[in-house]
TrEMBL record:
<dbReference type="Pfam" id="PF00069">
    <property type="entry name" value="Pkinase"/>
</dbReference>
<dbReference type="InterPro" id="IPR008271">
    <property type="entry name" value="Ser/Thr_kinase_AS"/>
</dbReference>
<dbReference type="InterPro" id="IPR052751">
    <property type="entry name" value="Plant_MAPKKK"/>
</dbReference>
<dbReference type="GO" id="GO:0005524">
    <property type="term" value="F:ATP binding"/>
</dbReference>
<keyword id="KW-0547">Nucleotide-binding</keyword>
<dbReference type="InterPro" id="IPR017441">
    <property type="entry name" value="Protein_kinase_ATP_BS"/>
</dbReference>
<dbReference type="InterPro" id="IPR000719">
    <property type="entry name" value="Prot_kinase_dom"/>
</dbReference>
<protein>
    <submittedName>
        <fullName>Mitogen-activated protein kinase kinase kinase 20</fullName>
    </submittedName>
</protein>
<feature type="binding site">
    <location>
        <position position="36"/>
    </location>
    <ligand>
        <name>ATP</name>
    </ligand>
</feature>
<keyword id="KW-0808">Transferase</keyword>
<feature type="domain" description="Protein kinase">
    <location>
        <begin position="6"/>
        <end position="280"/>
    </location>
</feature>
<keyword id="KW-0418">Kinase</keyword>
<dbReference type="GO" id="GO:0004674">
    <property type="term" value="F:protein serine/threonine kinase activity"/>
</dbReference>
<dbReference type="InterPro" id="IPR011009">
    <property type="entry name" value="Kinase-like_dom_sf"/>
</dbReference>
<keyword id="KW-0723">Serine/threonine-protein kinase</keyword>
<keyword id="KW-0067">ATP-binding</keyword>
<comment type="similarity">
    <text>Belongs to the protein kinase superfamily.</text>
</comment>
Length: 320
């Protein structure tokens, strides 16, 4: 780290494969960098994450890593540290961000904007053939920007997806073994991933539904159940249960979350299709068009009506 001319500021947090600390470039007031550190045991996961992040250079919805290699630091006792410098999110994680709101519930316009940003990120990830496998508030970073307009200060927020340590290639199940039957965090995992270790893009869309639900309710998915351990979740999912969607949510929001919670992965659509959902209609996806390089045409009216009917029928069948 001496070659980077930075100094340690504070410890930011610890994850499954290492810790993250904040450093500041010497002589600069605004030059911050987050450094992710792992030991020998978790070095392989860190190298893999660096390799994946290197494929997303310049993608504004994916946290950026710096440099062209994983850095090593050797100590006299033989201990080795592995480090990758990354973007620093001064707003913390989405979990930290929601903690600042009453009952941890976000305003609906902000939820829609955040959902759009996450879908843009997932569209890019899936286009590159990856599945994130651990989308949750702790792995979503918030980048605030302050703008002065007409003498007033206004804050804008950008979301970026981080922590690719558990990411897999779409459809890859070679990693599966009885001791590790799923890839991510159980309460955000889809039925097929918890039960069979499947890692398709539908897993990320189920997790997105959990995150959107949490932004509305301020509570984690499955919080309505007394027991949310893995075995209990498996029983719920086998019975075709999904996290409870409150009746007081707006209709379009419920329909969007229900699409994410479809038990057949293909019925969850894909990130690009969900960007056209009525829940987000009216948003202009300029970033997605540029980065995903795929034009999104407006469907014909009768197709929209048929889709609306299908969603309404799905809602009726899901009443319990």
């Amino acid at each position: 780290m001496a070659a980077l001319e930075v100094e340690f500021k504070k410890f930011l947090g610890r994850g499954s494969f290492g810790s993250v600390s904040l450093f500041q470039y010497k002589g600069r007031q605004d030059g911050y960098v987050a450094v992710k550190t792992s030991d020998d045991e978790h070095a392989k996961a860190l190298y893999r994450e660096f390799q994946i992040l290197s494929e997303f250079k310049g993608c504004s919805r994916i946290v950026q890593c710096y440099g062209n290699r994983v850095q090593k630091r050797y100590y006299e006792d033989g201990y080795v540290e592995y480090k990758i410098p990354m973007e620093y999110a001064s707003g913390g994680s989405l979990r930290d961000f929601t903690d600042r709101f009453k009952d941890r519930k976000l305003p609906e316009p902000l939820i829609k904007e955040f959902t759009r940003m996450l879908l843009e990120g997932l569209a890019i990830i899936h286009r590159h053939g990856y599945v994130h496998c651990d989308l949750k508030p702790e792995n979503i970073l918030v980048f605030p920007t302050c703008v002065y307009k007409n003498g007033e200060r206004r804050w804008f927020y950008e979301l970026k997806i981080s922590d690719f340590g558990l990411s897999k290639r779409d459809g890859d199940n070679k990693w599966w073994e009885p001791r590790h039957p799923f890839a991510g965090t159980p309460i955000y995992m889809s039925p097929e991933s918890v039960s069979h270790g499947e890692t398709g893009k539908g897993l990320d869309l189920w997790s997105l539904g959990c995150v959107v639900l949490e932004m509305y309710t301020g509570k984690s998915p499955w919080s309505h159940r007394e027991n949310d351990d893995l075995e209990d979740l498996k029983k719920c999912l086998k019975k075709c249960y999904a996290p409870l969607i409150p009746n007081d949510l707006p209709c379009d929001a419920k329909l969007f979350i229900m699409t994410c919670f479809a038990f057949e992965p293909d019925e969850r659509k894909d990130a690009l299709t969900l960007l056209r959902h009525s829940f987000l209609r009216g948003d202009v996806n300029k970033i997605t068009k540029l980065q995903v390089n795929q034009k999104i045409d407006n469907p014909k009216d009768f197709v929209l009506k048929l889709e609306k009917i299908r969603q309404m029928l799905s809602e009726i069948r899901s009443i319990r």
